[in-house]
């Protein structure tokens, strides 16, 4: 019994000893593993796997970095109490391509890609916080071998440094390039990014730099060009510096001498059909003398004064880009003064000058046909802006009174109206003189009474011929008597009647000519250089007088009456003077002695406007040069 009890005691002791060994071993192994992982606290240890067998450890896992694997293994081997460390760890393949990126969104800052060491990774995160603008920085980077041996960290730092200039966007760094894209915070940041990625500043050596950053985005992309006082001012936005310069060049091409003030700012947000819109706008700017062309999200607006009628018509016909709303408030060229006219003669009624629009033109043509009394109506009117208020009523009033004339003209300058001509009959004369112009700032009438009938005219001409012959004889006798008296006073011998060929002084010659033109002026038919019949005899008397002063130089001065347009009268009076000169040459007077000049209606012999006195306004004077 004793031996049996002793045996069970020994067995139980052995079992307890074995259990104690196993229990104690688990504690040792657990402690070693725990202290081994503790030694890796300064490393990225998520990849490490450690197993203990007594005091022997197995070190396993796939390290992202070769350097990290070695450092971690060395740390485990130095743990106190570890006898042997079996290294069964591996290293991940190098990352190819080796990429890194930082992205700024509206709410955060995200780091992705690879970092070559834990220290550099931590440094990148810290620098990202500095440029993040206070938003949260999310680190989604991984450790990996494969980073370029030189310049990679400089490239990453350069990319991060420029992230603070982005409103949204990203920077990407690979093995040989740094690329930035997104929207700049403002124009200043855009320009700074453009300069930096052209190789300025702290650009890393050996890396290609590429920028695809847009200007700040605006919700309403507005552009305008204002032409005024010889200057074109560009305002609003352009989608980039190159576009800004191209727009300026296009505007200079259509400026027609105007200076160009380019105040365009850089921005993004332009419509998809921006190029079509800007081309359309500048085509209108070319056709404007003054005004504005404006592009906005709402469409295109054009306002102002056209350079010419052709430009006005061209602008009304220009087709807008598809789907774009266009508003045009344009006027024809403004003229000042705004002049319109109409004239009537035996054959036609001619309308000229300016009219404000097609409606006014049609109304005037309709009125002209109504008063033309069968005459041809000729339309020479052109369009223009600048007609004063009440212009249509004034022009209609003018045509009504032109219809009461046999020949004449009406002229409307702004709101000043002038009527000039010969009344059709006595009733028409009374109607014209009593008419009151509507809203006129001035009314001028120069209306002659109607011409007498044919019988009355023939009687007047017969009487004129008889009287003319007597006056011519009297003029010749008076001239000879004057010369005889002068000869007697000077004591010269000779007969009372001086020979026709005997010379006289320039003063005496002037007296002879004055007496002739006083008693019988040389006159012409209306609107003609043809002599009146009664003046043929007087021309012979003048020739006789001129032969008595053969050395004297003579000026033949012609004058016209008030009929016809004022600009035509000097030309007509000149023709009359030349007609007299030609007649005197035929009568033997030397052509080189005479100079023919026309003075129009500036010196009428009489002021009475009765038709029978017009003959005295269509006259000739002779001036002897001493």
Helix fraction? 25-40%
Radius of gyration, Cα only, in angstroms? 56 Å
Strand content: 25-35%
- Shape label: rod-shaped
Structural classification: alpha/beta
Mean pLDDT score: 83
Number of helices: 15
Would you identify the regions where 5 or more consecutive residues have pLDDT less than 50?
Answer: 15-23, 481-500, 562-567, 603-617
Number of strands: 27
Distance between the termini: 191 Å
Largest beta-sheet characterization: 7 strands, mixed
Summary of the model, kept short:
It contains 15 helices and 27 strands.
Describe this entry's structure for a reader:
By secondary structure, this protein is α/β, with parallel strands linked by helices. It is built from 15 helices and 27 strands. Strands 11, 12, 13, 14, 15, 16 and 17 form a seven-stranded mixed β-sheet that branches. Strands 18, 19, 20, 21, 22, 23 and 24 form a seven-stranded mixed β-sheet that branches. A hairpin with a 3-residue loop joins strand 5 (100-104) and strand 6 (108-115). Helix 6 runs parallel beside helix 7 (274-287), helix 9 (358-371) runs parallel beside helix 10 and helix 12 packs parallel to helix 14. It is rod-shaped and about 195 Å long.
């Amino acid at each position: 019994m004793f031996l049996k009890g002793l045996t069970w005691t020994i067995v139980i002791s052995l079992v307890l000893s074995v259990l104690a060994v196993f229990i104690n071993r688990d504690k040792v192994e657990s402690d070693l593993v725990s202290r081994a992982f503790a030694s890796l606290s300064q490393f990225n240890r998520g990849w490490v796997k450690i197993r203990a067998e007594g005091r022997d450890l197995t070190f396993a896992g796939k390290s992202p970095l070769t350097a990290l694997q070695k450092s971690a293994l060395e740390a485990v081997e130095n743990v106190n109490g570890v006898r042997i460390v079996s290294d069964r760890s591996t290293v991940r393949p190098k990352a190819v391509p080796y990429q890194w990126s930082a992205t700024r969104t509206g709410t955060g800052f995200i780091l992705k890609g690879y970092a070559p060491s834990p220290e550099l990774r931590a440094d990148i995160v810290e620098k990202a916080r500095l440029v993040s603008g206070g938003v949260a920085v999310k680190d989604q980077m991984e450790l990996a071998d494969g980073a370029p041996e030189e310049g990679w960290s400089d490239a990453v730092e350069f990319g991060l440094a420029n992230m603070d200039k982005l409103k949204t966007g990203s920077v990407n760094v690979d093995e040989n390039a740094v690329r930035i894209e997104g929207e700049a915070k403002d124009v200043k940041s855009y320009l700074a990014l453009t300069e930096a990625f052209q190789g300025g500043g702290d650009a890393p050596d050996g890396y290609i730099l590429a920028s695809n950053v847009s200007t700040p985005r605006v919700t309403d992309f507005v552009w305008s060009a204002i032409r005024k006082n010889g200057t074109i001012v560009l305002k609003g936005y352009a989608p980039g510096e190159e576009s800004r310069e191209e727009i300026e060049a296009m505007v200079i091409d259509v400026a027609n001498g105007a200076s160009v003030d380019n105040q365009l700012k850089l921005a993004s947000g332009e419509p998809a059909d921006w190029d079509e819109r800007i081309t359309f706008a500048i085509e209108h700017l070319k056709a404007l003398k003054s005004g504005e062309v404006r592009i906005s999200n709402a469409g295109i607006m054009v306002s102002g004064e056209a350079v010419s009628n052709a430009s006005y018509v061209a602008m009304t016909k220009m087709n807008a880009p598809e789907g774009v709303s266009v508003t045009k408030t344009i006027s024809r060229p403004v003229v000042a003064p705004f002049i319109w006219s109409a004239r009537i003669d035996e054959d036609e009624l001619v309308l000229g000058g300016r009219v404000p629009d097609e409606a006014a033109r049609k109304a005037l043509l309709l009125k002209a046909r109504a008063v033309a009394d069968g005459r041809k109506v000729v339309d020479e009117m052109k369009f223009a802006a600048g007609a004063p208020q009440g212009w249509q009523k004034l022009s209609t009033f003018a045509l009504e009174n032109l219809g009461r004339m046999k020949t004449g003209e009406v002229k409307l300058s702004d709101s000043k109206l002038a009527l000039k001509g010969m009344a059709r009959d006595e009733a028409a004369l009374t109607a014209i003189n009593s008419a009151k112009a509507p809203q006129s700032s001035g009314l001028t009438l120069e209306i002659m009474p109607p011409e007498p009938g044919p019988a009355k005219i023939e009687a007047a001409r017969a009487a004129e011929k008889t009287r003319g012959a007597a006056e011519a004889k009297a003029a010749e006798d008076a001239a000879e008597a004057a010369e005889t008296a002068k000869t007697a006073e000077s004591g010269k011998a000779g007969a009372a009647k001086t020979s026709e060929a005997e010379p006289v002084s320039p003063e005496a010659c002037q007296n002879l000519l004055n007496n002739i033109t006083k008693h019988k002026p040389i006159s012409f038919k209306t609107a003609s250089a043809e002599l009146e019949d009664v003046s043929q005899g007087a021309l012979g008397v003048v020739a006789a007088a001129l032969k008595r002063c053969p050395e004297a130089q003579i000026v033949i001065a012609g004058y016209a009456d008030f009929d016809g347009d004022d600009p035509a009268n000097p030309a007509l009076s000149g023709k009359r003077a030349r007609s007299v000169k030609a007649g005197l040459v035929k009568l033997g007077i030397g052509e080189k002695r005479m100079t023919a000049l026309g003075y129009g209606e500036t010196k009428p012999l009489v002021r009475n406007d009765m038709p029978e006195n017009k003959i005295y306004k269509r006259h000739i004077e002779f001036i002897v040069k001493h």
